[in-house]
Amino acid sequence: MKKKQFVSVFIAFVMVLAGCKDNEMGPLVTNGDKPGAISNVRVENIAGGAKITYTLPSDEDVLYVLAEYPSTAGGTRITKASSYTNYVVLDGFADTQPREVTLYVVNRSENRSEPVSVAIQPLKANLHFVFESLQVRETFGGVNATFTNEKEGEYIFYTMTKDEGGSWVPYDRLYTNSKNRDYSVRGLASEPTEFAFFFTDKWQNSSDTLFASLTPLFETQLDKALWKHHPLPGDTYIPEFDSWRIQNLWDGTTANIFYVKPNLEGLVLPNWFTIDLGQEAKFSRIRVNQLSHHDSWMFASGAPRVFEIYGSNDPPSDGSWNNWTLLSTYESQKPSGSPLGSLTNEDRAVAIAGEDFTFPIDIDSYRYIRFKTNRTYGGNTNVMISELTFWGQPMN
Question: Of 37, 104, 290, 321, which is most buried with the most CB atoms under 10 A?
Fold first, then answer.
């Protein structure tokens, strides 16, 4: 009797388990029945696309809604929306031409409903607003571009020049999704040059092209072999370790770093250090490489955020600010603008490459510089930098 009871319980358990598996796996067989079509369709045209809202049919096995429509580049695109939503968003249009969209309900057997067609007319794409904000100008060693990307879309910014045969070829390209960008292309000769600038998006759409004839301003990188530390009273330059000394700032590599000892008595911001460049020069720009060895140091800790550069040809030995001239005040710009501790790939790329800061074109020439840090990204009083580089016009 007990054996029969055990067998009955076991059979019941197996049946329950099988029922659970059926629920997890969904239907085990397919059918040819079409699901019902969507209804109450409404269209909201948006920048570069449209949002189509609808009511789903009552069928229990609805899987998704499929939208078919012509793409900007030709051919057909497909966008799917889950059955857990009541709308589908179509994007990636570069123009405002009307288009027909065909929508189907698809069930778990991959059967399509009867088609429902609607007309959309995308509004002006953000790609074109970004292009309209573009401004270019000559700068030292190249050209400078500024633009605004309010929607923080993903774009590639192209700088084109002509080859020896007169054909346009890419000279530089920048991937960006920053809201505001100030970007310079360097390494160009100081001679009249024809440029073309445009943007592309992730759907391979292109903006209009801005053509300009510009003459980059002459500059050359100052010889770091001539640099040496010029310690003065009041300067802050004592490193955390001997291997993290100030001379690493001009050793030609970002692998070595200058890391001020964090527990120095009276260490506050602002603080500064002094360098003898070994020659008098009219400065064009400075590149600051922050520590980029790992994420925790990029746009964080003691990386300078707001700093000033002073110049002198006769720095007083008492460390005072007599005979020093403020050349400019700068603020480092994190491309994403995200909070401390958050980084995008664009942020990392800028941290690794270093940030360039341009001097006013009308400054005098100087031999000694003072780097004064007013604010760091993490609020740390101990400044952390891996490399400094100056460009300009040597006087001798």
Answer: 290
